[in-house]
Amino acid sequence: VQLQESGGALVQTGESPRLSCTGSGLAFGDYSVGWFRQAPGKEREGVSCISFAGARTFYADSVKGRFTISKDRAENTVYLQMSSLKPEDTAMYYCAATRSSFTDLVAGKVDYWGSGTQVTVSS
After folding, report:
1. pLDDT given for residue 63 in this prediction
2. What is the mean pLDDT of the chain?
3. Alpha helices in the chain (DSSP H)
């Protein structure tokens, strides 16, 4: 099983990059998939999650209204559209997948992790 993230970059405040997570060896239709991030010196935190069929979503308060998560089951890919980026969004962003339940993923109980993609927001 592999989760491959892409889309991380050095961006300016206010820009709107999109992160992608493509899974291999698992079907995203059977998994809740989400994004977590970790900034230097800070703990990893949940950013956004989407359920098996895409009917439920979760957003951290810090990104509500700015980030949008979506799932393309045909492409086995989950996207995180980010907008109005701030310097405090700078972090390594990790894709994660959990089969047991959406609630478990939101709680940080993860079956599989990606290796991460760096997002750096400069002011």
Report:
1. 98
2. 97
3. 102-106
Distance (Å, whole) CA 36 – CA 58: 11
- Tokens representing 49 are 């999650």
Q: Which residue has the tokens 């400069």?
A: 122
Contacts of residue 46, defined as CB under 8 A and 6 or more positions apart, other chains included, come to: 34, 35, 36, 58, 60, 106, 108
- Once rounded to an integer, what is the mean pLDDT over residues 38-62? 97
Specify the amino acid at residue 70: S
Contact present, 2 and 24 (Cβ < 8 Å) = yes
Identify the CA nearest to 106 among candidates 31, 34, 56, 55: 34
Cβ of 87: how many Cβ atoms within 10 Å? 10
What does the pLDDT look like over 92-116, one tens digit per residue?
999 999 999 999 999 999 999 999 9
